[in-house]
Amino acid sequence: MEKHLAEGVPAPDFSLPAHDGRTIRLSDYKGKNHVILYFYPKDDTPGCTKEACAFRDDYNKFKPFGVEILGVSTDPIASHQAFARKYDLNFPLLADEKKEVARLYGALNPEKGYARRMTYLIDKDGIIRRIMPNVTVDGHSEELFTAVKALAPSLPME
Questions:
Q1: Which residues, at least 6 apart from 155, have a Cβ–Cβ distance to it below 8 Å?
Q2: What's the catalysed reaction (predicted)?
Q3: How far apart are CA 73 and CA 89, in angstroms?
Q4: Is the dihedral of CA 143, 5, 101, 12 positive or negative?
Q5: How far apart (Å, rounded) are the C-alpha atoms in residues 76 and 90?
């Protein structure tokens, strides 16, 4: 049964393989980093490429705020590796081939069988602070940066 996720509740833990050979567990970041967990449909498609490249370009803006970015799709590792290499992506892409994490987070598009574009902002205590269910690629990274600054207002602004 699908768990109902909402802002203010703990984010469910998961473990997935990353394109760089690591296994990423959400719980690895607890107590250390905020996490942008973004789900996307397919590697190397126009919208997904634009979204990933915006996160890549803004990565250094997020770092001083203790933010890690994790991209998740149902594509296999080999596809993620090619996508990350082609666009020089500087954050992990996680392969959810069994579609379990996308389903758990309500991001699985049941008609299409792959993840829909959806983002979670999870604070360093593991609590979901923002759920963005209908992401528009343009301006998404900037919108998240504004939300991150609200989580950590004492840090220097750019």
A1: 64, 65, 149
A2: a hydroperoxide + [thioredoxin]-dithiol = an alcohol + [thioredoxin]-disulfide + H2O
A3: 15
A4: positive
A5: 18
Q: Of the candidates 37, 64, 68, 49, which has an alpha carbon nearest to the alpha carbon of residue 137?
A: 49
CA angle 104/44/37 to nearest 5° reads 30
In a domain, 5, yes or no: no
Side chain identity at residue 77, one-letter code:
I
- Domains held by the chain: number: 1
Which residues are CB-neighbours of 22 under 8 A, at least 6 positions away? 92
Q: Which domain holds residue 94?
A: 15-149
What residues are annotated to the active site? 48
Under DSSP, the state recorded for 41 is S
Q: Which residues of the chain have pLDDT under 70?
A: 1-4, 153-158
What are the tens digits of pLDDT across the range 96-108? 999 999 999 999 9
* 154 domain-assigned: no
Question: Would you say the pTM of this structure is higher than 0.70?
Answer: yes
| Structural contact between residues 125 and 30, judged by C-beta atoms closer than 8 angstroms | yes
| Residue 68 resides in a domain | yes
Tell me whether residue 9 is in a domain.
Answer: no
* Strand ranges (E), the chain: 15-17, 23-25, 34-39, 67-73, 93-95, 108-109, 114-115, 118-122, 128-132
